[in-house]
Amino acid sequence: MKIAFIRGQYINNFELQSYYPMLTDKSIKLIGFGSQKSKHQIKIPNIKLFSPVDLPDFPYKLPILNRFFIDAMYLFRLENNLKHFDIAHARETYFHFSKQAIIAKQKRIVKKTLITCSETIPFNHETIWGRKTMKQFVRDNTDHFHCLTQKAKECLIKEGVGEEKITVINYGINLKQFKPIPKKTNQDFTFLFIGRLEDQKGVKELLEAWQKLKQNYQNIKLKIIGKGPLKILVEENGIKPEFYPYEQIPQITAQADCLILPSKPTQFWEEYYGMVLLEAMACGVPIISTNSGAIPEILGQTGIIVNHSSSQQLFKAMVKIIENKNLRQELSQKGLERVKEKFDCRKQAQKLKKLYQKILNDK
């Protein structure tokens, strides 16, 4: 069974965690299709094709390219490179390479198509000229859809996809890499944020809550890891943003006392998954997050969920975490149990393998 894993510039190790366990199975050959400037070095063969997004940066790059290509995630010569593959597995209905994969199937270059979807906002990304038509083409002609969450499945159904064409399989985490470790003694109580330093990630609300918290408690620390346009704002609040290779994130996460993901929705985006939540659960770290997108579905009863865009509710949750050791221990244990049950990448890889087999066997 030969699978074309098509992700363009966005091919990444976070997603591939749930596929790497397949590499020991000689019945499956997984080949990546990235762009020439793929962001990650991955552990499977990666055929790098030119994409418009590989062009040097210039003002309004993506909006301009999207006008020319409907979606800039186009991969030149993709169809020719898909010869002899059983399944073309692409991502999202609005990426151009998903349409290319379907055209390859219609030309009988590949046998079946599978599209993974994480989008949770129905009819999103349709304001660009031609995008609505392209998404409809992908929805109508894909053999099967893999959704990361029930919320993503509901989104596809609202857009007109039949429920029988959708399978929900959560992505998992490497539990050998992310696991609890003894914390250093005599360190400050540490809140951890990992993510893009952008408004939609709730950075401003986090900083507001933090300033209030500092007035009431000593020996506390807010560690912020990430890059983005709000870097200066973070520094103005007395915090130096840090950045580490992904290989160091497991140990950094495990040393934290609480992870905070204060995401808030915009007109065109909401938190569709949140891999950082799985990483914290796997390390036994309590979590404070918001009701943005699929976060409540991912967390279940294993974290404190507050209303998005509320620094006051965030502050109260941080106080509760500091003052209630029993709550911290309870959330830690619930998180560990949930991640082992639902988000072990080895179990998820088996489910994805069965999905591949089902798609190939369907008439």
Task: Describe the SSE topology.
Elements: E1 2-8, H1 13-16, E2 29-35, E3 46-49, H2 61-69, H3 78-81, E4 87-91, H4 96-106, E5 112-117, H5 131-141, E6 144-147, H6 150-158, E7 166-168, E8 189-194, H7 203-214, E9 220-225, H8 231-236, H9 249-255, E10 258-261, H10 275-282, E11 287-290, H11 295-299, E12 304-306, H12 311-323, H13 325-342, H14 345-361
Parallel strand pairs: 1-2, 1-4, 2-3, 4-5, 5-6, 6-7, 8-9, 8-10, 10-11, 11-12
Helix pairs in contact: 4-5, 7-12, 10-13
Tell me what the structure shows:
By secondary structure, the protein is of the alpha/beta class. It has 2 domains: 2-172 and 344-361, Rossmann fold (3-Layer(aba) Sandwich); 189-342, Glycogen Phosphorylase B (Rossmann fold, 3-Layer(aba) Sandwich). The protein is built from 14 helices and 12 strands. It has helices spanning 13-16, 61-69, 78-81, 96-106, 131-141, 150-158, 203-214, 231-236, 249-255, 275-282, 295-299, 311-323, 325-342, 345-361; strands at residues 2-8, 29-35, 46-49, 87-91, 112-117, 144-147, 166-168, 189-194, 220-225, 258-261, 287-290, 304-306. The strands form 2 sheets. Strands 3-2-1-4-5-6-7 form a 7-stranded parallel beta sheet, with helices on both faces. It has a 5-stranded parallel beta sheet with strand order 9-8-10-11-12, with helices on both faces. Helix 11 links the parallel strand 11 (287-290) and strand 12 (304-306). Helix 4 packs across helix 5 (131-141), helix 7 (203-214) crosses helix 12 (311-323) and helix 10 (275-282) crosses helix 13 (325-342). The longest helix is centred in the last third of the chain and has 18 residues, at 325-342. It is globular and about 65 Å long. The mean pLDDT is 96.
